[in-house]
């Protein structure tokens, strides 16, 4: 096999969920049918890697010092939503009508991995909350053990600054069937039941 | 969202089987954790697209005029295996002990799509068979309607040049259970049964 082709196949494996077989299929597909698209991908990758950094306000990906969302006058500055990753931020932005601002932790507390408050930018978040503009900190970390621990830490931090912490509701997913919901979720949903009107 | 990021996500969708969600995940993964790997991928793509063409002998991908396999003195020139795609060639090369040469059709006969003998390089294959060195043409097109039609066409071409055509055996896959084998294959395997020694 051409060694440039081998290098291309190997390079594709850097992508998440891409093993040897898929990498081969990608390389062949691009060379057979998508050379123009492949060129665009090559250029988009190089440009993005060189020019996309992090917003100094919210730590989301941004090609400018302050990202478009943080710079927007149309967003409500009294609500701040803390998420673990840019992907979580995007999911909330796309699924909800939320018009407040975000803070991206870029991880969750995980002392064993050396990820503490400093790595999550919590000193920066603390200063932000001290500014007095934020009234509610919506904590949207994932419902994992580490995500919950992070949520508790963030809630304390919020209260220290007189900011109201809130947490996304847990429960049976809309359209979900009870028999397929995991036991922890079901147990929580049952315990958190509310009276019907 | 950063527009460079949007461009990167859009660019990833050129890859086979990659929709919006997967493209997002790839872009975030590269920017968060694999900037070095992403740079390598960008460069490998650009270089491969610029420098990988087709071998003039076998039509496989090659960065040289004649590919490594065709140029090798260690391969048997009396056997030629015709396949539809470079991926099929690679599968045979990796799975079997085949030591002959290949001819990559880069497709199969499909008159409705404007793919005829000329598009598959059959004039070139005809000249190759006329050289007199090839004794067996192993026809490894896929067992689809178009692949079978192509196989019949190739078999005729081989006979015209006094070359023996052969076709890969069909049947129950090794380790396959009868109940999960498709009906066409099972029927063929039954009809092609051979006496046990
Ligand atoms: Zn921002
Ligand atoms: Zn070749």
Automatic annotation (TrEMBL), chains A, B:
InterPro entries: DNA_Rcmb_RecR, Rcmb_RecR, TOPRIM_dom, TOPRIM_RecR. One of its GO terms (molecular function) is zinc ion binding. Keywords: DNA damage, DNA recombination, DNA repair, Metal-binding, Zinc, Zinc-finger. GO terms for biological process: DNA recombination; DNA repair. It holds the Pfam family RecR_C. The keyword 4Fe-4S does not apply. A zinc finger (C4-type) spans 55-70. May play a role in DNA repair. It seems to be involved in an RecBC-independent recombinational process of DNA repair. It may act with RecF and RecO. NCBIfam families: recR. This is Recombination protein RecR. It comes from Luteimonas cucumeris.
